[in-house]
Amino acid sequence: MLSCPLVEVYRLSLLSRRFEERVARLALEGFLPPMLHPGAGHEVSQIAALAALRPLDPVIYSHRGLAYMVARGVSLQAILCDIAGRVGGTNNGKGGIMHVVDPSRGIYGESGTLGGGLVVATGMGMALQKKKSDALVVHFFGDGGSNRGPFHESLNWAAVQKLPVIFVCENNGWAVSVPASRSTAVEDISLRAIGYGIPGHIVQGDDPEQVFATFAQAADRARAGQGPSLIEIKAVRLLGHYSTDPQDYRSDVASASEKDPLPKLADMLLAQGLADTAALSAMEQEIERQIADAVAQARQAPLIDAREAMTDLFA
């Protein structure tokens, strides 16, 4: 089995973190709409998970963060144009931050309703099965979404039909401002897999090697026609539900920052001799240049024509 490409996971995680920070600043400056659901703290596990899959395995994500798109190489400029309503976005400026879609890279966006992505992922799994494709669908959702009806209906049907789907619950302990302990009677969402006769796994969000190995195992199972898996990532939410969330309902903000997987991964690279401080510094500078170029290009892109608002609509 292949090993986790730790240096690349770190580079993409850092790119996602710095890009998201820039997006938040652009929103404060008024260049972008203010709504952003930060994924800070989730990037390492999201990118390690996708590193274990094939480049075009369909991804349906939730709304927390940009790492899904960054991991698949979606243009930073295109993401910015989507958010800013400018020409050049993957949805021609009509998708916003929550609906970046790039099928050429296996990115299929998210549902318009919380929990709806579970149904869409299951449907895509049925389509792949009927086509006798060896691709699989991976769907990321939050612990709050796991309490909705579509979670249970989708896992049940996917299990019965042995569909090639990996269901991924990113459990950061918060559904907006509601702690998981107030909404869920079990500590581990993965235990629910037992009720559907499928494997349930727990992985730690700060352990990319564990994440990579578990997703590779689930992918092998799906491609072999043995059906879906449920993987629960124990993640940490470093920031608010949205970018300007005051988080006055949280008492764990300071302790959460101590669990940040990104600096921990940097320390791992240094300890294992996979990189030195000069290489990490050069990587940071290259990322800043890459982001600056994308921002400059997005600023020059024209706003979409209002007459385009109704094009590409199918309902």
Explain what this protein looks like in three dimensions.
With 315 residues, the chain is an alpha/beta fold. Helices cover 42% and strands 10% of the residues. Strands 1-2-3-7-6 form a 5-stranded parallel beta sheet, with helices on both faces. Helix 1 packs across helix 10 (277-300) and helix 4 packs across helix 10 (277-300). It is globular, with a radius of gyration of 19 Å.
Give the overall pLDDT as a whole number: 94
How large is the count of helical segments?
10
Strand content: 5-15%
Q: What is the 3D form? A: globular
Q: Count the E strands.
A: 7
Computed CA radius of gyration, to the nearest angstrom: 19 Å
Low-confidence stretches: none
Distance between the termini: 44 Å
